From TrEMBL:
Gene3D superfamilies: CoaB-like (3.40.50.10300), Flavin prenyltransferase-like (3.40.50.1950). Residues 198-413 form the DNA/pantothenate metabolism flavoprotein C-terminal domain. This is Coenzyme A biosynthesis bifunctional protein CoaBC. Binds 1 FMN per subunit.
Length: 418
């Protein structure tokens, strides 16, 4: 495991990405079987390297059946193929899930007392650790220092999730869901030459659409699904960032390694974003806050009038969160990114309106979506033009929302580095 500037290139077209899945000895080892299935079903060539302790939880036949390969467990097996060196040298990604406190400690101190730790020392590709342990172990100063060491060397150490642990215990230390670990690893594999260039950075991302209630059952809202914001948060975590995701009315699983704060209204979104932004290096406002809210909210459901008349709803303008965080930055050099969903009208084209918005809001970058006909909302794909305050423009062709997220972070990183 070395500085990622030495990473090998991505697999050539037609080659299956080679993944080493290390499994350490924790109860969460059973979840690694689902992660393995996600890798194999998506076309990756996976070699499973369980520790001796991991095999106490899940046996070798399970790993062999799911991977289609014999399981490598010791440095002296198939010795003519030198597995303790070759596996790390040839991998495009090494992911350890679960990574126990013991495994993190051995990796941080460069020990090579089994096949997995040998692989970690010989790997010249991205390395991802997905920790799982009790809260006290995760928060122990030794583990904190070991995680900091691994991150400093370029490894991605995902923040554990919060929830039910073994026995009756709950807290931080739960293995993130396998689908989300896989999604983060896919982001890492998409850019194997890049460094973990957001390590040590704190970023805030907002996602989803706010609701402004008329009564206990009705609200004013919008069509934002949160998919783009979640992709941005996940990509930031894959690049090593400490990520806070403020999610407005989103029903998506939490991205691996991301702290999620849930809100409903624009006022709640503003409060959480402004608070989190005070210590952030970058803020990406991908959420769609409602521009207006009712001046009064009925305590009871509004009933239909017997004469067929409709109620009159008086609206007030909501605070402009993007304008506020752009013009009142507590951290010098921080980068603020806004989003503009435009359709164009008689006053201007989509880009003309977006340039005016960029100047008015005061952010550094503005991601512009043409949403004519409902495009973008709820779709896994996106197409955008990213405008910069210095006049630059980057055209991002149609592709996955994860691909757009990577372009956004590339532009943010370039500005954080200047």
């Amino acid at each position: 495991m070395t500085d990622s500037t030495t990473h090998e290139a991505a697999p050539h077209a037609g080659e299956r990405p080679r993944v080493v899945l290390g499994v350490a000895g924790g109860i969460a080892a059973y979840k690694a079987a689902e992660l393995l299935r996600r890798f194999t079903e998506s076309g990756h060539d996976v070699t499973v390297v369980p520790t001796a302790s991991a095999l106490e939880f899940v046996g070798a036949p399970t790993w062999a059946a799911l991977s289609g390969k014999e399981i490598a467990t010791g440095v002296f097996e198939n010795i003519t193929e030198v597995p303790h060196v070759r596996l790390g040298q040839q991998a495009d990604l090494v992911v350890v899930a679960p990574a126990t406190a013991n495994t993190l400690a051995r990796a941080a101190h460069g020990l090579a007392d089994d096949l997995l730790t040998n692989v970690l020392l010989t790997a010249r590709c991205p390395v991802v650790f997905a920790p799982a342990m009790h809260t006290e172990m995760w928060e122990h100063p030794a583990t904190v220092e070991n995680v900091a060491t691994l991150r400093r060397r370029g490894a991605i150490v995902i923040e554990p999730a919060e929830g039910r642990l073994t026995g009756k215990d709950t807290g931080k230390g739960r293995l993130p869901e396998p689908d989300e670990i896989f999604a983060l690893c896919a982001d890492v594999l998409a850019r194997p030459r890049a460094t973990a260039d957001l390590t040590g950075r704190r970023v805030v991302v907002s996602a989803g659409g706010t609701r402004e209630y008329l009564d206990p059952v009705r609200f004013l809202g919008n069509r934002s699904s949160g998919l783009q914001g979640y992709a941005i948060a996940r990509s930031a975590a894959a690049r090593g960032a400490d990520v806070v995701l403020v999610a407005a009315n989103v029903s998506l699983p939490d991205p691996a390694g991301v702290k999620v704060v849930r809100v409903e209204t624009t006022a709640q979104l503003r409060e959480e974003v402004v608070t989190a932004a005070s210590g952030a290096d970058a803020v990406v406002m991908a959420a769609a806050p409602a521009d207006f809210r009712p001046t009064t909210v009925s305590d009871a459901k509004i009933k239909k009038a017997t004469d067929g008349s409709a109620p009159v709803i008086e609206l007030a303008q909501n605070p402009d969160i993007l304008h506020e965080i752009s013009h009142h930055r507590s951290r010098p050099g921080s980068v603020v990114v806004g989003f503009a969903a435009e359709t164009g009208d008689e006053t201007g084209t989509v880009l003309e309106l977006a340039r005016a918005k960029l100047a008015r809001k005061g952010c550094d970058l503005l991601v512009v979506n043409d949403v004519s006909g409902g495009a973008v909302f709820g779709s896994p794909d996106n197409q955008a033009v990213i405008l910069a305050a210095d006049g630059a423009a980057v055209d991002v062709p149609a592709g996955s929302k994860s691909a757009l997220a990577q372009v956004i972070w590339d532009l943010v990183v370039a500005r954080l580095s200047t």
